[in-house]
Design brief:
Helix 1 (19-31) links the parallel strand 1 and strand 2. By secondary structure, the chain is an alpha/beta fold. The chain has helices at residues 19-31, 44-47, 50-57, 68-73, 76-82, 93-101, 107-114, 127-131, 133-144, 170-184, 217-228, 256-266, 308-314, 332-342, 383-399; strands at residues 8-13, 35-40, 85-91, 119-123, 148-149, 153-156, 162-166, 192-197, 202-203, 209-210, 232-237, 248-252, 271-274, 281-283, 302-304, 321-326, 347-351, 364-371, 374-382. Helices cover 36% and strands 24% of the residues. The protein has 15 helices and 19 strands. The chain folds into 2 domains: 8-181, Flavin prenyltransferase-like (Rossmann fold, 3-Layer(aba) Sandwich), CATH 3.40.50.1950; 192-399, CoaB-like (Rossmann fold). Strands 12-11-8-13-16-17-18-19 form an 8-stranded mixed sheet, sandwiched between helices. A 5-stranded parallel sheet has the order 2-1-3-4-5, with helices on both faces. The structure holds cytidine-5'-monophosphate. Cytidine-5'-monophosphate (C5P) is lined by residues 196, 256, 274, 276, 278, 280, 305-309, 324-326, 339. Cytidine-5'-monophosphate binds at residues 196, 256, 274, 276, 278, 280, 305-309, 324-326, 339.
Length: 400
Amino acid sequence: MASLTGQRVLLCVCGGIAAYKAVELVRRLRDAGALVRVAMTEGAQHFVGTASFQAVSGEPVRTSLWDAAAEAAMGHIELARWADRILVAPATADTLAKLAHGFADDLVTTLCLATTAPMTVAPAMNHRMWLHPATRANLALLRERGVQVIGPVDGPLAEGESGPGRLSEPEDIVAVLARSAGAHAGDLAGLRLVVSAGPTYEDLDPVRYVGNRSSGKMGFAIAAAAARRGAEVMLVAGPVSLATPAGVTRIDVRSAAQLRDAVLAALPADAYIGAAAVADYAPRAVAGNKIKKSSDTLTLELVRTPDTLAEVAASPSRPRCVVGFAAETEEVEAHARGKLQKKNLDLIAANRVGVQGSGFESDDNALTVYSRDGARALGPAPKIRLADELLDLIAERLRA
Ligand code: C5P
């Protein structure tokens, strides 16, 4: 039996026909040991009455920001703080859009914006709305921020159509929540992690730079997973257009030199995870004006950049676990182990080359993590899952 014993779940119910299933969801959550409070959007109340939720949750149900009596009993900020987890189910296309863009124009969206608790959404809508590029983009943004998405599933929909858009079954939603609560709940609490992510850009002149194709997705996934597991996370991000994961403090940098300064200033920490693809060379000087095409060839003089990872590992405030990444195209193990030794690292995660769909811009990846005394193959799996597996290895070392 799935267990959510003692977990305080704030269930936000939105306006879709699947709202009726949320009544059953409350029962299942309570059966699994959770304490449940319910907030409803205006739309949700057209499908199910507050009395049903009140009866199954055993708690007063909130429907409005402007209910003076309810606010006096437990203010909405207090309610947002009360929650160990926010579950939005069913999550409509409209609410997902509002959450993705930070709207707070009703009780549910305000609660979602005011909480620091991890968030799970279980979408349900017409399949064409689910497949619409706007909904896909909103979901992608929420996922980047570390929001857990459950479903929807394929099947018959309310309007006599069929497709992906049905709310996941309440028992499946509870099972997923219990698994994620049990697996890593707060196991990194009390630890401080510094993570670097993304590329660096080394400016040539006011309009050009030398950069690389790193998307930052792996590092952001690590930061998101670590924060979800209770760590204090400082994310030093190169130029990427990814949303900041919930609970993560982010510092944006551009060049390798700026990355170094930001990372060293963020120490001390228990672990440093250098997932950034830092430029090894930068132009010796940045031209004050745009470089003109005056000759057939142009020679750039590049100089070595500081090696942040090696500096962190050699620093007097060296984190107990220093982790590097190795993007290699050949002789992966030899090069990775060479770096482990040379830079005095605890772990180095090498991309397994030749694995379909892995690498820089992909959402999936496959890594082999080398330590002095062994190697572990992780994935192929979504970067979000790999992040948790890598954090398991780091947590193991920090506990040792
Ligand atoms: O030696 P190489 O650049 O392949 O090593 C990659 C690892 O070193 C990554 O973890 C990267 O973040 C880090 N690195 C760094 N500073 C550099 C170059 C690489 O921190 N200037």
